[in-house]
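We read letters as residues; the fold follows as C-alpha cells. A sample entry reads:
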Amino acid sequence: MRCFLRGYLLVQENIMARCASHPGLYGKHYEPGVFCVFLIDFCQCMQYYHQSMYELMVESKFSAAHQLRGYKGKCEKLHGHNWRVTMAVTAERLDEQGIAIDFHDLKKFLREVLDQLEHTCLNEIFPFTQINPTSENVAKWIYDNMAKKVNDDNIEVASVTVWESDTASASYFE
C-alpha cells in the first residue's frame, strides 16, 4: 500500500470491510461497487503502514553431530555438520554515536549461545532430547536463546538462519 502526503488512497471494494473497521482513520467511503477514496493524514499513514528500521547481521559457526529420529534416509544415522549461523536484529533508533548495538556485543552473545552446541551431539541437549534437531528446530532454538539475551525496547532478533551445508539452510523469524 502506498502512502502519499495529504494524498488519496484508492482501495478496491474487496477490502471495504477492513476500511470500515477504522472509520476514524479512513474517513468517509462511498457506494459498494465503486472505488473507495480515502483521505489519509500522512502522520497516521506512517503510523499504521510504515516504520523505519535498521537491520544488523552477524555470522558465526559451530560444529555438532545429530541424527533425525524417525527419518528414513541417511540423516537417520549419527552424522555431523560444520553449521553456519546468520542472525539479523532490527533496531528502531541509534544511540548518540550512531550505533544500534555494537557488533562486538552481538557476536559475543551469539558465541555464548553457540558454545552450548559446540562439539556436542545435539540429540543430547534439551529440547532436542524431545524434538528432532532439524535445521528448522535448531534455528528456532538459537532464535529463542538470542532473543532472551538481546531483545529490549529498541533491539529485537529478526531472524536466524542455520546452514548445515553450503547449499541447505533453514530460517526462523516471528
Observations:
- Confidence is low (pLDDT under 50) at residues 1-50.
- The chain has five helices and seven strands.
- The beta strands are 8-11, 36-39, 54-66, 79-91, 120-121, 155-165, 168-173.
- The chain has two domains: 8-49, 54-173.
